[in-house]
Amino acid sequence: MKNQACIELRDLEVQTHIGTYGPNDTVPEKHSLDLSLQISSHNVLIAQDGMAHVFDYDPLVAEIDRLAGDGHYETQERLMTRIVEACAAYTEVVSLEICLRKFPVRNGSGWLGVRLSVDAPSLADLRAKAHASPLSPRLQTHVPA
Fold it and tell me: What is the pTM of this model?
């Protein structure tokens, strides 16, 4: 079995506007993101210290913030799709799991979330389709220095 590592981002509150609500509907107060990125263990088991040897997640977190604030979304699923596409731009990411939750659901309590797992073949297909289609935004694949 090949070694694999995981970058985990948990309970990141994202500033976003999702959904359309009527006067008597419960409007979510916040949205929270969980993201698990499977990467090669070579980006964790390093011979020397330095950012050049690890996966730099800061640019991805900044892109997630940008996408979340990029206007109004009708659905959580659309924002999740855009975040998955952003993750796919990093060749270090082998597969991923994402969950986006909103709070509260009703009367100040509960959360409702959507979870998606994207395996390695599906992520490769997403990358290939994004590069092949002139109609869709092209992924600018991040290649580590």
Answer: 0.87
Place 134 in a pLDDT band, splitting at 50, 70 and 90.
Answer: low
Which tokens go with 116?
Answer: 């998606």
Helix/strand/coil percent split, the chain, to 5: 30, 35, 35
Task: Residue 76: name the closest of 129, 121, 5, 20 by CA.
Answer: 20
CB atoms within 10 A of CB 2: 6
- How far apart, in whole angstroms, are the C-alpha atoms of residue 71 and residue 45? 39
Backbone angles phi, psi at 108, to 5 degrees: 75, 10
Q: Is the pLDDT of residue 141 over 60?
A: no
